[in-house]
Write the structure tokens for this entry.
Amino acid sequence: MWFTRLHEVLGAAFRWFAAAALAALAVGCASLPPAPTVAASPDYRYLIGPGDNVNIIVWRNPELSMSVPVRPDGMIAGPLIEDMPAMGKTPTALGRDMEKALGTFIRDPVVTVVVTGFVGNQSEQIRVVGEASKPQALPYRQNMTLLDVMIAVGGLTDFADGNGATLLRAAEGNKQYSVRLSDLIRRGDVSANVDVKPGDVLIIPQSWF
């Protein structure tokens, strides 16, 4: 008798706890504003990061032209230049800095910098954590959307609460937005697709049930 009563009490307590947890989760999700559909900046310029490959062309000086990786410390090195900061610069800005450095050795150098392998500056990478098939950091590119990000990470796991996902926007002081990944990926609702911005973090929680 007492065992049956205990079972009923525990069952009721569990149901209450589950309902409270779901209510708290719903309130938490509902308190976040939806992510803006349009967020891309038309004047965005790519910033070089460690791991990028850069092709440096010095006009009329092929012996000084080179293709080099950006080191983990953000530097590059080559003929006549031992250590040149590259991280956080646009390709154009790096070209102008190299012209100044090479100007000590050759007359009126003209340098063109082309990025041929993209990793991106760490502060601008899109990071995906949680219940993605392949959580990872992605280089940002102009007009990148949530759908592009989800394709790159292989979609959601079977345990993901896609519509409970959060987009944390570093460019806006770590402001948080709600996003509807399940609607976008599993139901094909294109209205759930939104722009991402450099430095965004996409957090995908696990479903409770």
Summary: The longest strand covers residues 111-117. Residues 53-117 form a domain with the wza like fold fold (CATH 3.30.1950.10).
